[in-house]
């Protein structure tokens, strides 16, 4: 006995989760049709009941609900409407669909129910997941409420005379309790069932090609960068998929190669004209008009080989490269924008080197038409000789961060500046409010005009952000440098498919206690869990399209994975690929990754196309390999730079949900750019400044220097952002946000000096000894106002290490967000010159933070001296404030009063900032606080007369 369901898909991203559940409870898979098919073409005699899926929009709009209305009114079968289906059912009988009291997306609620029919045998209250911005009110007499929330929002209905039921919540969500039982109750409410056996999908027979993969193992632990540089860096269209972080078992392997082999190809695709170009050495490009996924599937089929049983990894040669975001046009999306890079670019690798970072061995792989081909033997012999001549490494520790070269300061431009991006976030929130989408993964595009050395920059990138899916592609179209931590899809030899979406991030803490507090905050955050759950349910849906019904499951939900710089909220979704499906079909069903679109995927991608006003290109796509043995492993393209023709670009973004704050979301995009901006300093010499910020480098430049200072016994950095600059005053918040992210990279305890109030922030970071004491400091209450928004998310961590004199701060826990990154936080108002020496009126500053010339210098000096006593670093820490020159010099003095200064310079109009810093090692003995330094005692210091003319000091001056 089995029950056959007609499942109407309202273009939702959770429909196939219903499909999976219904397959389980019915004994056979349902038939899925979309809401825009011809209703008259459906033979209802083939079905026992109907389920109408969730979806975006409103039931009154034809595009949104389509044939679902006719199914309810004319179907004559037991019918269950879920979410949008529920709203449509109610509206068709006279109820009103209105805005809900608040949008509820990916969030659990307890509902109460009548314990009959659909809810028979289920507990009340029942924990369910809700995805809706609209709700039903004013039920007509023929409809009866069956479930509701504690605040009276309708969660379920039944028709009093017809076999019609509706559920506002989502029984198919992985976090809804008793979802299977509820759908089983619906099955039991269906009077007719069918006898006989259910047809099973026919297994697709793989016809093996005449090729064989020859392998050779070399027991020698070598440096991956050296292997790449010696063997492939100068070859055509080379690749380096780096697994040296060894965070996961499958991330222990590094794969390298190029397109120089006799059977190698470099393949590109253009969505606009549907053209595949196949480039082979020495012959003209072969041009084919074919859909790319179809081409890729065919080529893997005709070159198919069995997996080599003696290899500890799945990769047996095949296609290596990227699939760009605009390839969505071949996966149910639309082609709205055209990228300036190919929409897909892959090398067919017929030869490769694989490094096992666990057992310290190397494997050579080569594709041959017969065993022991002479050309293959020669290549393996030459390659083995090169590897055996390399020095043996003792471990896979990444190299130390290289020194920064001096260069001109590059500028970074954003496709959408701050105000424009904030407007787009607000548009996303409005779309969420009216039910068009649950979550929008909105992104921005950054571009820097700079030439880089791709290999050197990638080596630096992987050293500062070790991740399991780092990659370097040096293709004809562009150089791709990726530090992605996120797995898009893996298809194993056992046909188990896995995806690991990431949503939710926290910085690491400096101590075990604070690190655990940050981890727990991420684990329990309602907003982060909601973001993660929405994508988990979406990925389950995508995998259910190609996996065996009932096999898709979530072995790890809301798991915190810890990397060197951050904690991340990661979930794992797995399923078993159907016998008639291939790895390419699985990629097509899931592309682009839901963590880069939002949900429902198709409607949300339409919103993204309108808002972003340009292509994403490589960003947001997938990068990795698809092997000729039927396996695959691809990452999500995030934290990735694209370098071509003297320009470096990358995408930055975040998930916008109903709980999002626009300012915080914009700040988060800048924080996410930090690693790439730091990596670019290897070629550009300095971190880039935002082009829509007038003035020299941003905080990231200085914080990057602070990171390099961290190995010295003492280091100091100070940055000021002042009002009066053309950039918006909220830059102060951006500075603090970047600081919170970047100072977490300094691996030793730090002292943070926040100079706030009046829209200005000064940040001083210094190395502190572990045994440093904590001293009280006077702080003005108004000085903390500007910091509130950026760290309010972390306020609840508690355990602040801050001690403030006589409770001078009215809300000291505002600074607890720095817990884990600082041993002590010192806060004070800025040093503001006298009225006649300052271009702005006092009224433009926060009340209580108005400290003029002499008093300002006195207060600043008290604060810095307190910090000096904390350092126990053998020197004095003195601030010199020159109100007539708008200059503050922060200097660390040793016994001989000779230590490099850290200076911040303003021009007279307050429209420019320039910061210099330097480092030295100092003996640990302590000396008394002395007088202000004489600039003449600092070899690198400018004279007062030079500074008074507002001239900029040279970059990176040293003592």
TrEMBL record:
A Pfam family this chain is assigned to: GATase
Boundaries of every Methyltransferase small domain copy: 738-831
EC number: 2.6.1.85
Keyword Transferase: yes
Keyword Transferase in record: yes
GO molecular function: 4-amino-4-deoxychorismate synthase activity; methyltransferase activity
One biological process term in Gene Ontology: folic acid-containing compound biosynthetic process
Family annotation (SUPFAM superfamilies): ADC synthase, Class I glutamine amidotransferase-like, S-adenosyl-L-methionine-dependent methyltransferases
Root EC class: transferase
InterPro entries: ADC_synth_comp_1, ADC_synthase, Anth_synth_I-like, Anth_synth_I_N, Chorismate_C, Class_I_gatase-like, GATASE, SAM-dependent_MTases_sf
Region annotated Disordered, chain positions: 923-959
Domain Glutamine amidotransferase: residue ranges: 6-186
Keyword terms, alphabetized: Glutamine amidotransferase, Transferase
The Chorismate-utilising enzyme C-terminal domain, residue ranges: 418-672
GO cellular component: cytoplasm
Stretches assigned to the Anthranilate synthase component I N-terminal domain: 222-364
Family the UniProt entry places it in: In the C-terminal section; belongs to the anthranilate synthase component I family.
Alphabetized PANTHER family for the sequence: AMINOBENZOATE/ANTHRANILATE SYNTHASE, AMINODEOXYCHORISMATE SYNTHASE
The protein's name in its UniProt record: aminodeoxychorismate synthase
Native source species: Rhodococcus koreensis
């Amino acid at each position: 006995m089995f029950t056959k369901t007609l499942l109407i898909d309202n273009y939702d991203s959770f429909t196939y989760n219903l499909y999976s559940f219904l397959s389980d409870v019915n004994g056979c898979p349902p038939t899925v049709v979309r809401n825009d098919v011809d209703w008259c073409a459906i033979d209802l005699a083939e079905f026992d009941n109907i389920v109408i899926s969730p979806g975006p929009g409103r039931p009154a709009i034809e595009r949104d609900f389509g044939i679902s209305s006719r199914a309810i009114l004319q179907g004559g079968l037991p019918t269950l409407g879920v979410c949008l289906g529920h709203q449509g059912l109610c509206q068709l009988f006279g109820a009103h669909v209105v805005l809900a009291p608040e949008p509820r997306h990916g969030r659990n609620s307890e509902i109460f129910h009548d314990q009959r029919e659909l809810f028979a045998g289920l507990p009340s209250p029942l924990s369910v997941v809700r995805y809706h911005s609209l709700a039903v009110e004013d039920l007509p007499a023929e409809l009866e409420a069956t479930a509701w929330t504690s605040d009276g929002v309708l969660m379920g209905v039944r028709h009093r005379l017809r076999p019609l039921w509706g559920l506002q919540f989502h029984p198919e969500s992985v976090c809804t309790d008793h979802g299977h039982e509820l759908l089983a109750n619906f099955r039991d409410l269906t009077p007719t069932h069918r006898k006989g056996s259910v047809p099973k999908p026919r297994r697709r027979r793989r016809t093996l090609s005449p090729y064989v993969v020859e392998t050779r193992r070399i027991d020698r632990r070598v440096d991956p960068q050296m292997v790449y540089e010696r063997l492939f860096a100068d070859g055509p269209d080379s690749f380096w998929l780096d697994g040296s972080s060894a965070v996961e078992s499958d991330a222990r392997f590094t794969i390298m190669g190029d397109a120089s082999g006799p059977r190698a190809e470099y393949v590109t695709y253009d969505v606009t004209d549907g053209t595949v170009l196949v480039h082979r050495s020495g012959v003209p490009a072969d041009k084919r008009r074919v859909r790319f996924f179809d081409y890729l599937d065919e080529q893997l089929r005709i070159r198919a080989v069995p997996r080599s049983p003696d290899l500890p990894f799945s990769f047996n040669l095949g296609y290596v490269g990227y699939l760009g975001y605009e390839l969505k046009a071949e996966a149910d999306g639309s082609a709205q924008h055209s990228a300036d890079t190919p929409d897909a670019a892959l090398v067919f690798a017929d030869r490769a080197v694989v490094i096992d970072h666990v057992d310290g061995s190397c494997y050579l792989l080569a594709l041959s038409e017969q065993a022991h081909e002479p050309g293959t033997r020669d290549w393996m012999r030459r390659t083995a000789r090169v590897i055996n001549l390399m020095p043996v490494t003792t471990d896979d520790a990444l190299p130390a961060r290289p020194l920064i070269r001096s260069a001109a300061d590059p500028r970074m431009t954003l496709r959408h500046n701050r105000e424009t991006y904030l407007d787009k976030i607000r548009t996303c929130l409005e779309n969420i409010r009216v039910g068009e989408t649950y979550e929008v993964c909105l992104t921005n595009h950054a571009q820097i005009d700079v030439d880089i050395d791709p290999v050197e920059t990638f080596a630096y990138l992987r050293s500062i952000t070790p991740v399991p899916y780092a990659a370097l592609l040096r293709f004809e179209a562009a150089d791709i440098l990726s530090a992605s931590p996120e797995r898009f899809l893996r298809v194993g030899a056992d046909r188990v498919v896995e995806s690991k979406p990431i949503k939710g991030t926290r910085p690491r803490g400096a101590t075990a206690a604070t690190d655990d507090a940050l981890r727990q905050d991420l684990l329990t955050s309602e907003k982060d869990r909601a973001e993660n759950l929405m994508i988990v349910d979406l990925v389950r849906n995508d995998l259910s399209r190609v996996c065996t019904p009932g096999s898709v499951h979530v072995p790890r939900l809301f798991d915190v994975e810890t990397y060197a710089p951050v904690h991340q909220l990661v979930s794992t979704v797995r399923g078993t690929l159907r016998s008639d499906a291939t790895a390419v079909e699985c990629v097509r069903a899931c592309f682009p990754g839901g963590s880069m679109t939002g949900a429902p995927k198709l409607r949300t991608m339409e919103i993204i196309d309108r808002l972003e006003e340009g292509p994403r290109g490589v960003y947001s796509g997938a990068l990795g390999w698809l092997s000729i043995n039927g396996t695959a492993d691809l990452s999500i393209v995030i934290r990735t730079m694209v370098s071509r023709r003297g320009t470096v670009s990358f995408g930055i973004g975040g998930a916008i949900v109903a709980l999002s704050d626009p300012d915080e979301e914009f700040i988060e995009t800048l924080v996410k750019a930090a690693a790439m901006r730091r990596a670019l300093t290897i070629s550009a010499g300095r971190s880039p400044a935002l082009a829509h910020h007038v003035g020299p480098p941003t905080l990231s430049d200085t914080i990057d220097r602070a990171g390099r200072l961290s190995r010295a016994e003492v280091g100091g950095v100070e940055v000021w952002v002042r009002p009066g600059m053309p950039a918006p005053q909220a830059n102060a918040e951006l500075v603090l946000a970047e600081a919170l992210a970047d100072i977490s990279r300094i691996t030793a305890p730090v002292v943070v000096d926040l100079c706030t109030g009046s829209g200005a922030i000064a940040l001083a970071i210094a190395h502190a000894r572990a045994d440093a004491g904590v001293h009280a400091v006077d702080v003005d209450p108004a000085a903390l106002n500007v910091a509130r928004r950026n760290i309010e998310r972390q306020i609840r961590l508690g355990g602040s290490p801050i001690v403030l004199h006589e409770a001078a701060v009215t809300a000291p826990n505002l600074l607890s967000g720095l817990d884990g990154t600082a041993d002590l936080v010192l806060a004070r108002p800025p040093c503001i010159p006298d009225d006649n020496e300052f271009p702005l009126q006092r009224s433009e500053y926060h009340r209580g933070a108005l400290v003029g010339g002499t008093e300002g210098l006195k207060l600043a000096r008290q604060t810095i001296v307190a910090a000096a006593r904390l350092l126990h670093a053998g020197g004095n820490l003195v601030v010199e404030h020159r109100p007539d020159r708008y200059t503050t010099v922060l200097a660390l003095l040793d016994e001989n009063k000779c230590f490099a200064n850290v200076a911040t310079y303003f021009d007279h109009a307050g429209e420019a900032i320039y910061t210099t810093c330097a480092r030295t090692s100092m003996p640990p003995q302590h000396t008394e606080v002395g007088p202000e330094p004489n600039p003449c005692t600092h070899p690198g210091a400018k004279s007062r007369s030079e500074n008074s003319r507002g001239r900029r000091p040279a970059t990176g001056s040293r003592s």
